[in-house]
Design goal:
About 75% of the residues lie in helices and about 0% in strands. It is mainly alpha-helical and about 300 residues long. The protein has a two-stranded antiparallel sheet with strand order 1-2. The longest helix has 29 residues, at about 205-235.
Length: about 300
């Protein structure tokens, strides 16, 4: 359990650099180009790793989950956040994505049949309300287009995280993200070609370095560590460590981008963190099993006394 939480925490630190790196990448490339470029490079790295380890193709029963990981984490979240950042700003996007741990836990709860206590849901609702209030105030009282992109990104990424964590209990975490990346290559490669034509690049040293980090660091290395942590520590529990990500991203946005912070951003991030801390201390009921018992399984005789 401790190793799983340590792995998840390491991944969160790496994830916190994603928005600043994306902002740098957008200085030289368009959002579609950034998304497909990072996917193509990461997929080639993953393909080489799978080939070197002589990993057989995944079983058919794992394909739907891998497709959801690809749609949510490999393509959906990177693209939607890249589209949101030019109008939302790094600090605003970081706080809004503070809802990601909650949405991940909700999805994982639905998939496993767990029954969180009323205290859990009360704290979770309070954290969600804090984030929605911040987004409304920071955008002038009505959702901006960037907020709509971020909302869609949260839903897709939460599903991808939860499915990837579930699969990482059956496959090594690095194979989960590797196969998801490879599955995205047939779409990402032509998409990258079209994006380059539609969005003429203006590459700089910093934008190129950012794309390479997003590919090798954020899309591949961080994800394989993340899925390993989710599998070892449990999806709902480990995912809550990501509540530290907005705080870390706010620090990076100030230190690396000299981006001014909205006055309410730090307080909102801390409020959400406190709410999720309460959910971690709330009592939990065991998951309900929806599996059909194996009629051929050997039954242990009941012990008397």
């Amino acid at each position: 359990m401790g190793r799983g939480l340590a792995m998840a925490a390491l991944a969160v630190v790496a994830f916190s650099l994603t928005f600043p790196a994306t902002t740098w990448a957008l200085e030289g490339f368009g959002p579609w180009t950034v998304t497909f470029a990072r996917t193509v490079v990461a997929a080639l790295i993953a393909a080489c790793a799978l080939a070197a380890a002589r990993v057989p193709p995944p079983e058919r029963r794992h394909l739907p989950g891998l497709a959801l990981v690809a749609a949510g984490c490999v393509l959906g979240f990177p693209l939607l956040t890249a589209l949101a950042l030019p109008t939302s700003g790094t600090a605003h996007a970081a706080v809004v994505t503070g809802l990601l741990p909650l949405t991940t836990a909700i999805y994982a709860t639905a998939r496993t049949g767990a029954r969180p206590s009323p205290v859990f849901w009360a704290a979770a609702a309070a954290g969600a309300a804090a984030v929605v209030a911040f987004a409304a105030v920071d955008s002038g009282g009505s959702p901006a287009r960037g907020d709509l992109y971020l909302a869609a990104a949260l839903l897709l990424c939460a599903a991808g995280y939860a499915e990837g964590g579930r699969l990482a209990g059956r496959l090594p975490g690095w194979q989960v993200i590797s196969w998801a990346l490879v599955a995205s290559l047939p779409l990402a490669l032509p998409g990258f070609t079209v994006a380059l034509l539609a969005e003429p690049p203006r590459p700089t040293a910093s934008s190129l370095a950012a794309v390479l980090w997003l590919a090798a660091g954020a899309s591949f290395l961080s994800m394989l560590v993340w899925y390993g942590g989710l599998a070892r520590a449990g999806i709902a529990r480990a995912s809550q460590l990501q509540l530290a990500q907005p705080l870390l991203t706010l620090v990076w946005s100030t230190a690396l981008l000299a981006e001014p912070l909205p006055a309410a951003a730090p307080l909102t991030a801390i409020a959400v963190l406190a709410c999720i801390a309460i959910t971690q201390r709330a009592p939990r009921h065991p998951a309900v099993s929806y599996t059909t018992p194996d009629p051929h399984a050997t039954r242990r005789p009941a012990q008397s006394g």
